[in-house]
Design goal:
3-stranded mixed sheet; single chain
């Protein structure tokens, strides 16, 4: 089986992790990113420093690739103008290479209200523009790519880089003894630890000959109530010396009213406010179909995953001293 993969958007949060995961599994990786790669060199990763819109150059450089991973993700405020065009470019490249196109999906497709358990058969009823775009992207992939695999997952955490709910809101003030949680703390929320999701992509790519031409899988990841996540973060922060071994930690609610008001002037906050329902409605991703396809689903224990996440975020104490991890 061919073992070359093209990663489109290899400097993004998911792109960086999935490129390394394929390389560590023995694949030859063509890592497309206009700027130099952010991670240390790997003997199996070759940088392709051209824009994805330069399709001829991308196709020539990735000749023989059997899998294309669409890891490109426009800024949250530019989905309307960029997401479908980037998706079309990925489809065209996969078609020219006669390759399987893989996409990390999310739960936006299901809209609000959505069932507490989401399976591959759950009807897609998007309730906002971002959900509509996601549905359009996946429909275009099924219609235009030779073969495809969509892996739907919850909110990302872990991996290098920033730009997720975890670092932008939840643990932003952790070193000051404060955690901000975006929803009711008794409501379950779907999370995906990026190294586990990336490893799942590798396993599905290696199993692609046994799959139908166009497949969709749900990655269960970690389903956590707010209380479970907060407790796990406190344990991890204490192990890393970010919090004292005992004592009170302040847990604040997300100030959604202020977010909506600020959204009148701030496009990013306006888009974030539209997704509040994801924190108010319990949801989990059922993984039975995925398990049948690849066997055991990668799932790092929560405490280990949160330890890794805090370490990668390089949170520092307020006075600037280095964090000294405590013995477990």
């Amino acid at each position: 089986m061919n073992s070359t993969v093209l990663i489109l958007g290899a400097n993004g949060r998911f792109g960086r992790v999935v490129a390394r995961s394929f390389a560590d599994a023995g694949w030859n990786v063509v890592a497309q990113a206009r700027k130099p790669l952010l991670d240390p060199a790997h003997p199996r990763i070759r940088h392709l420093g051209v824009a994805v819109t330069d399709r001829d150059a991308v196709i020539a450089a990735a000749a023989g690739a059997a899998v294309v991973v669409h890891a490109m993700n426009p800024l949250y405020t530019k989905w309307d103008t960029e997401a479908l065009a980037l998706n079309a470019a990925a489809i065209a490249i996969a078609g020219s290479l006669n390759a399987t196109l893989m996409l990390p999906g999310n739960v936006y497709n299901f809209g609000s209200p959505m069932p507490a358990e989401l399976t591959e058969r759950t009807p897609e009823r998007p309730s906002n523009r971002k959900g509509e775009i996601r549905c359009q992207m996946e429909a275009a992939i099924r219609a235009g790519a030779p073969r495809s695999i969509v892996v739907r997952a919850g909110d990302f955490f872990g991996g290098p880089g920033v730009g997720s709910w975890m670092d932008l809101a939840i643990v932003k003030d952790l070193a000051k003894g404060r955690i901000t949680y975006p929803g009711p703390r008794n409501v379950e929320h779907a999370w995906a630890f990026l190294p586990d999701l990336a490893r799942t992509f590798v396993l599905l790519a290696e199993a692609r000959a046994r799959l139908a031409s166009h497949e969709s899988f749900h990655f269960p990841g970690h389903t956590l109530s707010g209380d479970q996540l907060v407790a796990g973060l406190i344990r991890a922060a204490r192990r890393r010396g970010l919090l004292p071994a005992s004592g009170q930690v302040t847990v604040k609610a997300m100030p959604w009213t202020l977010v909506r008001m600020a959204g009148l002037f701030n496009p990013l906050l306006r888009e974030i406010a539209k997704m509040r329902y994801l924190w108010q409605e319990p949801h989990r991703l059922a993984g039975a179909k995925l398990k049948a396809a690849i066997g055991a689903i990668p799932c790092t224990p929560l405490d280990q995953a949160l330890d890794t996440t805090l370490a990668e975020l390089q949170i520092r104490l307020p006075h600037g001293a280095a964090v000294v991890p405590r013995a477990a």
